[in-house]
Amino acid sequence: MRGLHTFILLAFIVLALAYAPHLNAYWMHVAIIAMFYGILAASWSLLAGYAGLFSLGHMAFASIGGYTSGLLVKWYGIPIPLGMTAGVVMCCALGGLIGWVCLRMSGPYLAIFTLGFAEIVRIIFSTEDDVTAGMAGLHTERLFDTISRLPFFYTAFALLAVSLLCMGGIVRSRWGLFLRAIREDEQAAAASGVPVARLRILIFAIASGFAGLAGGFYSHYIGILTPSLGGLDLMALLIVMTVIGGMERLPTAVGGAFVVELLLEVLRGYEQWRLPIFGILLLLTMRFARNGLLAPLWLRFEQLGRAASIATSAADFTQKDLET
Amino acid sequence: MSGGTELIRGMRLVKRFGGIVANDTVELAVAEGDLIGLIGPNGSGKTTLINLLTGHLAPDYGEVFVHGRKVSGRPAHVYAAMGVARTFQLTQLFGRMTVIENMLVPGLARPYARWEATKRRARRHLEFLNLAHLEQLQAKSLSGGQQKLLELGRCLMLEPTILFLDEPFAGIHPHLRDDLIKRIQELHREGRTFVVVDHDMESILRISQRLVVMARGRKIADGSPADIKADQTVLAAYAGF
Q1: What CATH number did the domain enclosing B36 receive?
Q2: Is B127 a domain residue?
Q3: For chain B, does the N or the C end have fewer beta carbons within 10 angstroms?
Q4: Which positions 36-65 of B are in contact with A (Cβ < 8 Å)?
Q5: Do A187 and B85 touch (CB under 8 A)?
Q6: Residue B162 falls within a domain, yes or no?
């Protein structure tokens, strides 16, 4: 039986979807971008939070997914969903390759290696302007030929929901347990029969695939793609979102993306001071709530479901007791 | 050897770390039913030998056979899948995972393992190790002795044919040490094979049927405890008794 929290969450989602058409274009755009970051934060949490692979190349994969799809659609006129699929496949293959190359790396070494990879990707996209239009930006075809943002909103929602269902399936399976074991101690995981190398490569490929999916959607939503999508600034923003939310759980990582994206807009009046505010928030999180600011709230929310479920079972039991 | 089927054999194993020869043409065969004490002074190459025989290190020279199959150079999880389990000199648990999750990892890594059956098996082993009441605690919050027991439990989840225990008695309370010895003896009676490395000679002599002595990366003696006690080479190299 599903807990009460699942039903509350479903009801909230239904309400949000029903209310979406009443949002103005500005807030709908904020919501769409929040969902784009939601996919990225969840997939980075899979990599860094669950498997302990602190990669700084995640936004580079979003960029690769975006450019692959944008260019294929532009050159060959293939349907956009097919272009996005090609972007995902490309990111899975490249992610697997990076995972294989950094098999023996972890912690700061892995972070520096993936940072180097991300910079190489960004510089290639910047300098190869015959192909990518460089910093001027690559004009990409939009997913829907309409000025309304509503179809994009529902598409972003569907992509986020499907991504979370797939990633949730992984973390709830034995593979999720093995990933956490790898994060805790690779040597002990191997001694326990976990195929560490295979899983590390696989999780790099899967997480990069989801980044590519987000990048593909972004490319065909915004309509213009610049190399800065894969830059360190946005990678830092993604880390802030995931860490503030809670990187060891998918829902808190997504929640972090939503909260930070919303705060970025709400605090826009503070201009350049809004970024130091996030810096301070990050410092406070690392000092006082290493599992993320949203993690304790999410745990309480989950317990609400369990408590209700236990109360129902207890009531059933008492009823049966009385009947006998 | 006890005369049972040969489970594992290391042949002419050589391992160097820079200029240091940690294992120098070491031969070791372990048969079903053995309970071997692997002893030697610090730096004699005992842990390196365990690492080589469990796939955590690849030998520079020589080969490892498990159940007659050559496996040297293969990753450690292949050894684990063939029933070779080990504990570590410094306990290595999945600290931020619960006790039951620590048990489930090796259990579910076995082919065709099912969640519910594995969970039942894990709980049985936890009861045997007197850890059942702690199953929802994070492994890092257990005491040192309990962590050693949990590491043994994690090994048992692999349904191993042979267990290598690296310094299981180090730094634990004498009472818990006696408990651990009792568990090892019980498991040995049930048919498990053990290779135990430790410096606690009293405990090693209590449980071992066969002693293997190492010094400066070489195996210098292999025989019954009585033979080893009388061996002049051992007495010269290892002044433990």
Answers
A1: 3.40.50.300
A2: no
A3: C
A4: 54-56
A5: no
A6: no
Contact B97/A192, CB-based, under 8 Å? Answer: no
In a domain, B55, yes or no: yes
- Phi, psi dihedrals of residue B70, rounded to the nearest 5°: -75, 125
Write out pLDDT tens, residues A57-90: 999 999 999 999 999 999 999 999 999 999 999 9
> Residue B231 — φ and ψ, nearest 5°?
-75, 120
The two tokens of residue A76 are 């060959």
Whether pTM > 0.80 for this model: the answer is yes
Domain ranges for chain A, please list them: 4-20+27-323
**Domain extent at residue B53:** 1-79+191-241
> Does residue A194 sit at the B interface (CB-CB below 8 Å)?
yes
Best of B89, B94, B119 to disrupt the A interface (most A CBs within 10 Å) is B94
Which pLDDT score is estimated for A191?
Answer: 95
Say what the ipTM of the complex is.
0.91
In angstroms, the CA A245 to CA A254 distance is 7
Q: Is B108 on the interface with A (CB under 8 A)?
A: yes
**How far, in Å, CA of A56 to CA of A59, rounded?**
8
- Total domain count for chain B? 1
Amino acid B223: pLDDT: 84
Residues of B in contact with A185 (CB under 8 A): 92-95
Kind and range of the H or E run holding A153: helix A150-172
pLDDT digits (tens, 9 = 90+) for A253-309: 999 999 999 988 888 888 778 778 878 878 888 888 878 888 888 888 888 766 655
Cβ–Cβ below 8 Å for A184 and B93:
yes
At A102, which amino acid appears? C
The pLDDT of B139-151, averaged and rounded, is 91
Q: Give the C-alpha separation, A296 to A248, whole Å.
A: 12
Residues of B within 8 A of A247 (CB-CB) are: none
- Which amino acid, one-letter code, is at A44? W
A4-20+27-323 — its CATH code? 1.10.3470
